[in-house]
């Protein structure tokens, strides 16, 4: 890997004094080396789609491009585009949506890939095996390269917490990013689980990527009647019956359920558009509370400081797909 030294004076954080004080310098932005393709069915819609991940220029962020609409529609993975967060996170723009984005976004954020154009020819990201393992493998297959620009980050300086009954989520200042999650269900086959994840690309692949989404057998008929989980099966979700897990192979990790919640949370936090440095804790939360935390952070700029410069005069949509019209 070629070393770049020209950016060292660009920010105070990369000054030698800052490094001596133990402040972690900003890392460079990262994108894919090549484009990669995957196909699969949506969990809720059961629609088969083709997904292509392309490298993208610095400061693009993660951008979805629905290629099956006329005109093609670009949707930034950003809090402002969130249309729903009931059982999955849905992004939309101008009436066009992409749903169940959280496992793909979790894989990209978890592996610290900042700039990607996601081409998709349908309304829902494939569920694959219910985890982010295939997306992590796909990203590995594409390869990751560093870009010239440094990646800005949001450092939390004041705590924020949100509560809804016995469910809550919070963030507080910390030197390095981490996520701690706890779950407890009123269900005979699931004991409470808690897991702490120290963010980083390698730990993500090892500890979080393979944790599958899950549901309870007692909810399946109700969800299907509401039009959800139409593509759900034991191939793409853990299903828990009154006496335990129905999937033949059992759990992949002792705390697979809570590890999956961490994957969901990482994917939802990616909607900040900038990596977060802080300690996030959540208990019995879900997409709704994850998204509310993202919105609270964006609405309370006094709770964090931005480290690293924003791109000036960068128009991410330019250069991403010159032929696409924007809805
Ligand atoms: Zn999930």
Could you describe the 3D structure shown?
With 327 residues, this protein is α+β, with helices and mostly antiparallel strands. The chain has one domain (12-307): 2-Layer Sandwich (lpxc deacetylase, domain 1). The protein has 7 helices and 21 strands. The strands form 6 sheets. Strands 2-3-9-4-5 form a 5-stranded mixed β-sheet, covered by helices on one side. It has a 5-stranded mixed β-sheet with strand order 12-13-20-14-15, covered by helices on one side. A hairpin with a 5-residue loop joins strand 6 (82-84) and strand 7 (90-93). Helix 6 packs parallel to helix 7. The longest helix is centred in the C-terminal third of the chain and has 14 residues, at 256-269. Mean pLDDT is 89; it is low at 1-17, 313-318 and 322-327. Residues 102-103, 213, 260, 264 line the site of zinc ion.
């Amino acid at each position: 890997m070629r070393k770049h030294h020209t950016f060292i004076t660009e920010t105070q954080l990369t000054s030698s004094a800052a490094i001596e004080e133990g402040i972690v310098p900003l890392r460079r932005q990262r994108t894919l080396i090549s484009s990669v393709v995957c196909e699969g069915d949506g969990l809720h819609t059961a629609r088969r789609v083709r997904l292509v991940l392309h490298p993208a220029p610095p400061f693009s962020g993660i951008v979805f491009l629905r290629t099956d609409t006329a005109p093609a529609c670009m949707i930034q993975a950003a809090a402002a585009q969130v249309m729903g967060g009931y059982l999955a996170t849905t992004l939309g723009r101008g009436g066009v949506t992409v749903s169940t984005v959280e496992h793909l976004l979790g894989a990209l954020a978890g592996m610290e890939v900042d700039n990607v154009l996601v081409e998709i020819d349908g309304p829902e990201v494939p569920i694959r095996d219910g985890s982010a393992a295939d997306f992590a493998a796909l990203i590995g297959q594409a390869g990751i390269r560093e870009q010239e620009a440094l990646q800005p980050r949001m450092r939390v300086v004041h705590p924020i917490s949100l509560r809804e009954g016995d469910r809550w989520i919070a963030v507080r200042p910390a030197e390095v990013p981490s996520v701690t999650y706890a779950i407890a269900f009123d269900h005979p086959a699931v004991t409470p689980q808690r897991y702490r994840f120290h963010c980083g690309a390698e730990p993500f692949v090892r500890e979080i990527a393979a944790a599958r989404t899950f549901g309870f057998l007692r909810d399946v008929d109700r969800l299907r009647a509401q039009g959800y989980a139409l593509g759900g099966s034991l191939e793409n979700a853990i299903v828990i019956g009154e006496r335990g897990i129905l999937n033949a192979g059992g759990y992949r990790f002792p705390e697979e359920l809570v590890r999956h919640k961490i994957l969901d949370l990482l994917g939802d936090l990616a909607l900040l558009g900038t990596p977060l440095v802080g300690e996030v804790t959540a208990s019995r939360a879900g997409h709704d509370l994850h998204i509310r935390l993202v919105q609270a952070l964006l609405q309370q700029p006094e709770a964090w400081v931005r480290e690293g410069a924003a791109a000036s005069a960068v128009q991410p949509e330019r250069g991403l797909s010159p032929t696409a019209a924007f809805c």
